[in-house]
Design a protein that fits this description.
Length: 210
Amino acid sequence: MNNMLNRLIWQFKKAPITVSLIGICIIVYILSFFLFGEEMNALEGLYFGGFNPVYIQLSHEYYRLLSANFIHFGILHLAVNCYSLYGLGLFIEKSLGLKKYLILILVSALTTTGLPYLFYLITGYGANVVSGGISGVIFGLIGALGALALRYKYIYMDIFKQLAPNIILMLIISFIIPSISLSGHLAGLIGGFVCTYILLMIKHQKHLIH
């Protein structure tokens, strides 16, 4: 028990934001487990803070733009996302630093739901969608890695190439499986890439000024 506790403390010191995100997702899932059991259906997910553009538009429940990122519809959904977040999050958090990484997480979370919401307002598409999970943020981290690879090819491009097959597979799965929010994944990817690229550009400009 002491070894496990010491390992958790060490991991938290190493990547406090990533570990905290995983902790929040686990706590939220435990709450949903006591309310609904091992898996939630769409109506239960909606009740528990899932994303639905109609509820946001008519009831002004804008908290769903953020809360939806932390709910998961089953233990497998939670486990896969936490594993992916841990593996990629530790690396990106160390690469960007706490402040930039926190900005990236917030932007990725909000674009994951915000862009599909704007798309619904423009086209009416997605009215019946109920979605949740932190996979959009994970795609935001993939986008961040893409921005790092573009700006610092000699450091990050090889890493990006190694992850490329997994990224392509995740996108293919998003296309094939109807229950997975393709729009959320693509929105998170775009948000993460644009956010990180802007942050790196600002950093570069500051270095030029100094």
